[in-house]
C-alpha cells in the first residue's frame, strides 16, 4: 500500500514538475530540453550564470533559428534571434507586448516593486505619461550645472591621484560620481559620495548591486511558485527601509510640497498635489473599441517606488557604461588620444568650461561610449510578455497570453552578422555617417519602442560629462602586464575578468 502511495506521489510530482513542457514541441519550435520544476533555468536559479549569459548561450547554440523556446521554471519563454521579429515585438506590435512581466504575479505586494520598470498595464502607462516630462531636454539642460559640479569634483580626485602616480579604481570612482549626481538631480541632496566612500547613498548603491543568497532564494521561490510566495519581498528589507527613510526625510523637509528645486522628488510631489493619475486604459476597452478610463492614486508608496527606480535603473547602468568606456580607452591609446584631442578642441571653443552644448559637440567621445555599450551592455537582455494570442509574422506559430519574450541584447551586439570583428573596440562604427548601416534592432543598449529606457538621454549625457572631465586632464593607462580581456572572456563567469586602470584590479560583475 505504502509502495503504491509513494509511486502515486512520484507520478503526481513528476506531472506537476513537467506540466506544459511539451508546449514548444507541439508548436514545432526548436527548444532547450527542460528538467522537472526548474525547466531550462537550473544554472540561473543557482546563480552560476546570469540571465543575460543564459540568453546568449541559447542564441549561439541555435545559429539557424529565428526563435528558440526555453522554460524558466514552468514559465514558457521565447528567445528571439531575428532583428526583424524583434522590431515587430518592440515596435509594430507593441499592443501585444506592452508588459515586461518581471513580477510573475498579478497582485504586487512588494511596495518598491510598484516602480515604472516593474509594473505593467494601466499603472505603467499612467506612470510613464506622468514621469516623461522629468526627462525632457529642458529638464536635462536645467540639471546640467549639477552634473558639471560633480564632473569637476571627479576630475579633481583623478588629478590628485595622477599627481602622486596613484592607482585609481575607476569602477568605484564612476559609481561615486553617478551616486552623487543621482542624489543631486533626483533628490536635491548632496550625497557626498565623492568625498566619503561610505556615505549612506554609496552603501545603498553597493548593496543594490549585490545578489545575496537571500535574494537568490527569494527570486527562485517567487519564480517557481509565484502564488505560494506572493508575500515575499523581492527587494531586501534593508534596501526598502533606506529608500523609505530617504524619501520621508526629504519630503518632510519640504512639507510634502514641491520646493521649486525641480528635481525628481519635486516632480512626484507635484503629481501628488494634482490628485489621481487619470488616462486612457491600455488594457480595457468599451464595446466600440475606445479605451476605458484608468486611474491610480499617487500615494507615498507609489512615490517611493519611483524614487527607488530612479536610483536602481540609473545608477549601475550609467556608472558601468562610463567605467567600461574608460576601460576600453585605457586599452586603446590611439583612440584615447583622439578623444582627448577632441575634448581639448571643443572645450577651447567654450572658454574651457564643460556645459551641455560642449558635451553635445564631443562626437568622437560619444562614438567611443556607444561602442563600449555595444561591447558591454549594462542590460544584457530585454523582457516582454505576450498579452494576447499572437502569430509570429511570417510563420504559423501562435503563442499564447503570458508567454515571456527574451531579447538577447548582449548576444546580438557580439554577432559578426551585424558587427564585423565584433570583439574589437571600433568607435568608428558609430560615426554618424555609418550609423544608418547598423541593422535596426541589432543594437539595443537602451531598449526600443514605448518601453525603452526613459532615462536614456540623462544617462547618456551625464556619462559623457564625467568622461569628458576625466579625459580632459588625465591620461589613462592599464597595468602593462595585463592581457586585453575580450568581452566573451569577461563574461565567461560572473567573477572572471579584471578591470585594470593605472594598475588597480577590480572584479567585474554582470548587472542582470
Ligand atoms: C547608460 C545608462 C543607461 C542604460 C544603458 C539603460 C538601459 C535601459 C534598458 C535597456 C532598459 C529596458 C528597455 C526595454 O525594455 O526596452 C531601461 C529601462 C528603464 N530605464 Fe534605463 N538605462 C540607463 C540609464 C537610466 C537612467 C539614468 C534612468 C533614470 C534615472 C533610467 C531609468 C529607466 C527606467 C525607469 C526604465 C523602465 C522604463 C519603462 O518600462 O517604461 N535608466 N534602461
UniProtKB/TrEMBL annotation:
Main location: endoplasmic reticulum
Subcellular location, record wording: Endoplasmic reticulum membrane; Microsome membrane
Gene3D superfamilies given in the database record: Cytochrome P450
Enzyme class: oxidoreductase
Residues where heme binds: 453
Membrane topology: Peripheral membrane protein
GO CC, one annotated term: endoplasmic reticulum membrane
CDD domains, per the entry: CYP6-like (cd11056)
Reactions this protein catalyses: an organic molecule + reduced [NADPH--hemoprotein reductase] + O2 = an alcohol + oxidized [NADPH--hemoprotein reductase] + H2O + H(+)
UniProt keyword Membrane present: yes
Enzyme Commission number: 1.14.14.1
Keyword tags: Endoplasmic reticulum, Heme, Iron, Membrane, Metal-binding, Microsome, Monooxygenase, Oxidoreductase
InterPro entries: Cyt_P450, Cyt_P450_CS, Cyt_P450_E_grp-I, Cyt_P450_sf, Insect_CytP450_Detox
Keyword Chloroplast: no
Gene Ontology terms, MF aspect: heme binding; iron ion binding; oxidoreductase activity, acting on paired donors, with incorporation or reduction of molecular oxygen, reduced flavin or flavoprotein as one donor, and incorporation of one atom of oxygen
Entry protein name: unspecific monooxygenase
Lineage: Eukaryota, Metazoa, Ecdysozoa, Arthropoda, Hexapoda
Gene of this entry: CYP6B2
